[in-house]
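User: Can you predict the 3D structure of Probable 26S proteasome regulatory subunit p27? Sequence below.
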Amino acid sequence: MTIDEQDINFNGLMKSLNFDSEEFKDYQDVDFDSYTFTQLSHVKLEIESQLNRLFDLLKQKYNADMDTPLVTPDGFPRSDIDVVSIRLIRIRIIRLRNDDKQIIHLLDEKMADEFARRRDETGSSMDIDIEPTREIVYSIPFARVGDVVENGPAFNSGLRTGDEIVLFDNDIHAANNNKLRSLVTRVVPDKEINVDVNRGGERVSLKLIPSNNWEGQGLLGCHLIPM
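Assistant: Sure. Here are the predicted C-alpha cells for Probable 26S proteasome regulatory subunit p27:
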C-alpha cells in the first residue's frame, strides 16, 4: 500500500468514525528545516495532540495498542478485532512519531538561536529562562517500563509497569537516547536519577535510585522497552 493509499484509507476511516479528517494533518511533504523555533514548537504540540487522540482511539474503540498481535499463532489475521482499522491507525501513529522525533532534533539545534533572539529582544546579557520552551521539547515517550519487581529499586522509587519515560537524568530524551544505550552509563549504584514519565495521561516526576544492595538482579529491578 502506497502512502497516498494509506492516507485515503485513513481519512475514510476517520470519516466513518465521525472524526473531521482535517484534525489529523499529514506532514509528509513539509520542510521542517525552514520552520522557525516557534513554528516547530507549535507543530510539535499539534502532533502530540493527534498522537494522544489516536492512542485513545486505539484503546477505547478497538481495545488495542501498538503491541497488540494482529494475527493468530498460526499466522492468520485475527477475526475478533478490526485488523485493518488498527493497522491504519498504527501506521499514522508511526509516521507522526517520526515527524515528532525530527522536530525534536531541530528544536534542539535551534535552541541556541532562540536564546540569542530573546536576548537581543530584551537587550540584556543576563541569562534568559527558556525552560518553558525546553519543556515542550522533552515530552515524547521513548521507553516503556516493563515488569517491575516488587520492593526493587525501581519499585521503591515509584516506577510502575506501563510508565512511559519522556526524560531520563535531566537530558536524555526521545532524540538522543540511542535506543536506550545512552541510559547505561547513567545507571550506577546509589546515584539519584531524575525521571519524568507519562502515567495515565499525566506527567509524573520521580527520583530513581539504582542499587546493588537488594535481593534481586540488576540495579533497577525492571525492564525498559524501547518505543
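The helical segments are 3-16, 37-62, 83-122, 131-137, 153-157, 181-184. Residues 125-137 have pLDDT under 50 and may be disordered.
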